[in-house]
Amino acid sequence: MNNSGVGLSDPTFRRYTPSQATQYAANRSSYPAELYDLVIRFHAESNGHFNTIVDVGCGPGNATRDLAPHFERAVGIDPGLEMIQTAQRLGGVTGSDSPIDFQVATAEDCAKIQNVENGVDLLVSAMAAHWFQMEDFWASAAKIVKPGGTVALWTCASLYCHPSMPHAAEVQKALFHLERDVLKPYELPPNQLSHDLYDDLVLPWQVDPPVTAFPMTEYRRIEKDRNGTLSDGKDFFVRARATSLQELGNSIGTASMVTRWREAHPEEAGTEMDCVNVTLAEVKKALGHDWDGELRLGHSAVVLLFKRR
């Protein structure tokens, strides 16, 4: 079992322009407090400390900024120069009012990043681990994470319409058409890995030789709302931020597959024939002309939690 790495198979985010990175930061939904609470609670209840957090594959630093107030020091790393420069412009502070340190670095070399000589208490990766070369990542994580520290990896998949929405089935049909038909030719293996909620993500005991620093006995997998079925019967664990069609379009536009579709269709990108705009028109038609409420959408999600021996 092998996952392609950032350096080999991320042809999109690493070469974002300044404008693309800024748009990504503005329109990519953050994660709910419940997800962060789950990670922080696991870390605290398993005797983790709160000195240093590192966010690997941080992009423009949205999750880094959300988690930094829990820690004395925070570092965000990403291989994309424009992503990091955008993160630096947006800034952010830790619980000790220290600025977040954003650095250009890969997940596979996270053990070599600067200013973490005393190790890392919590290492997180938000919707990025599917781009990592996992064998190298686990080896580096074992070097940088302190004994008793935590690694938390999570991802979200697909876009689902809440069953309480009017004409939910027709709205879902439009969303699935974009994902499963229009964008399918622009899907890469890491996208599928995320879509499958990390079912096949290489775990530390699956590499050769196994990385024994993260024992399987301490591992937790927490899955929510798979295939759009609400785990609690009420709402999505990871809710989409979009409350209007325009916000929905902006959010969908941050997907790597959409970026690749637009690169392949430069004459249609941004026009009414743009794949996102066509989908929005289909969703609007499904909702009906008299619809004036909020969009209730969400994702399936998984959180993987590991303890450093």
UniProtKB/TrEMBL annotation:
MF annotations from Gene Ontology: S-adenosylmethionine-dependent methyltransferase activity
Residue ranges constituting the Methyltransferase type domain according to the UniProt record: 54-152
Cited Pfam families: Methyltransf_11
Superkingdom of origin: Eukaryota
InterPro entries tied to this protein: Diverse_substrate_MTase (IPR051052), Methyltransf_11 (IPR013216), SAM-dependent_MTases_sf (IPR029063)
Identification of the protein by name: Methyltransferase type 11 domain-containing protein
